[in-house]
Amino acid sequence: MTTPLHEQLDQLQSKVGLLIGSLMASRQKNADLRKRIELLEQENRNLRRKVDKGQEQVNQMLQQWFPELNEEQEQRNGHA
Predict the structure, then answer these.
(1) Which residues of 11-49 are buried (b: 16+ CB within 10 A; e: fewer)?
(2) Distance between the two ends of the chain, CA-based, in angstroms?
(3) Dihedral sign from CA coordinates of 24, 27, 32, 33
(4) In angstroms, rounded to a whole number, what is the distance separating the alpha carbons of residues 80 and 72?
(5) What does each of the 80 residues of the chain score in pLDDT, given as a tens digit?
(6) Cα–Cα distance, 25 to 23 (Å, whole number)
(7) Is there a contact between 70 and 63 (Cβ–Cβ < 8 Å)?
(8) Predicted TM-score (pTM) above 0.70
(9) CB 53, CB 46: distance < 8 Å
């Protein structure tokens, strides 16, 4: 061996330290991404509720303004 054992151990310790640092950073990034995903999922659910409510309101207005559309739809469903 050309390199003394203690130097090899020092090099190995440095590499292990770098790997531990990378692992910790990766875990933190993973945790941050999970939080971001949870926030986006919640935002998506909220937006979906708003869209559904808006669609319901539009349907109610259409039924009030054009009751014949509702009657035609019921007739189509009855014959289908």
Answers:
(1) eeeeeeeeeeeeeeeeeeeeeeeeeeeeeeeeeeeeeee
(2) 87
(3) positive
(4) 12
(5) 578 999 999 999 999 999 999 999 999 999 999 999 999 999 999 999 999 999 999 999 999 998 887 777 777 777 65
(6) 5
(7) yes
(8) no
(9) no
